[in-house]
Each structure stands twice: as structure tokens, then as C-alpha cells.
Amino acid sequence: MFNCTETPFVCISRIEIVGSKFEGLGWFFVMLLVAFGLQVADNFLWLKNSQYSREILQLKLGDSKRTKLIGLSVLWTAVSTIVWIIRVIFVMGNNLWMFSSILLGNIAGTYFASVKQAADEDNTLDVIIQEFEKESGRAYRLRDLMLKLPEAAPAGTRKKEISF
């Protein structure tokens, strides 16, 4: 279809990766699938590591849970970096179809990682808002307690009016 000698950028029967030439449609499509798969995997790795980062930042310094999560985050970062290096090697092949495969892998990976990723743990503010939305008695008891807070402030503390 395309003359690989004259236009290697659009060639579909040969690809060169780090000086190694892979000839034939079979090798070409296998390399496209590998690049696609690496890009999808990278999206999952990024999302997983982002989740660990969010969890780490919710814990106080010195918390044993934080130390464990930092170790896991470092591990996922290492794996992600290895995948990134391999993807860069594929990009260095300078082939339009490889770029397209990586783009499609990024789109598919973002979609599937977002669909598969579990929701974040509820934070306190979200829980309170949900309780108010359900018109829960617990939420209104909490509101009443919060309204009493300025009255219980230590002497000399400036009182501010709280309104909802």
C-alpha cells in the first residue's frame, strides 16, 4: 500500500523500534496492539497511584497507614515509569499508525479506568451534605450543635454569626 522506503512514517508493513526493524503485517499489528495495551495500562496505573496519593494526603504525618500507602505509591510509580519508558520507545518508532494506536489506547484507557475505578471514600463534608439531602434527623441535630458552637467559644474569642 505505502512504499516504506519513501514514506516510512505511514508504512504499515515495517516498524523500527530502537534500531530493530520488524518486517511484515503480523509484527506491525502485534506492536500496535502492545502499544495500545501499554497505554490502557498506563491509565489504570495513573488512576491507581492518584488514588493512593489522595489517601496519603488525608492521613497525618507519622500515621502507620500513611507509611504503608507511601510504599504502595512508590511501587506503582516505579511500574508506571517502566511502562512510560517502553511507551517512549514505541513513540521513537516515528510511525503514524503507532501514534494513532497510542491515542486510541489513551482514550480507551481513560474511559475504562474511570468506569472500573471504585469511588473515593466519603469525606465528612460529603456525608453531612448527603444527610441534609435525605432530611435526616442526625443532620439537623448536628446543625443545632454547630449553631451552639459560638456560644461555647472561650472568652475573648470573636463571635461570628453562622447562618444556613
Describe this structure in words.
- The protein is mainly α and 164 residues long.
- The chain has two domains: 8-116; 122-150, no CATH class.
- It is 63% helix and 5% strand.
- It contains five helices and two strands.
- A two-stranded antiparallel ribbon has the order 1-2.
- A hairpin with a 2-residue loop joins strand 1 (14-17) and strand 2 (20-23).
- The protein is elongated and about 85 Å long.
- The model has no long low-confidence stretch (mean pLDDT 82).
> What's the SSE pattern?
EEHHHHH
**SS class:** mainly alpha
Structural domain count: 2
**What proportion strand?**
under 5%
For the largest beta-sheet, the strand count, sense and barrel status come to: 2 strands, antiparallel
For the CA atoms, what is the radius of gyration? 26 Å
Apparent shape: elongated
Number of helices: 5
Helix content: 55-70%
Query: Would you identify the regions where 5 or more consecutive residues have pLDDT less than 50?
Result: none
Provide mean pLDDT, rounded: 82
Give the terminus-to-terminus CA distance.
69 Å
- Order of neighbouring strands in the sheet with most strands: 1-2
Quantity of strands, as a count? 2
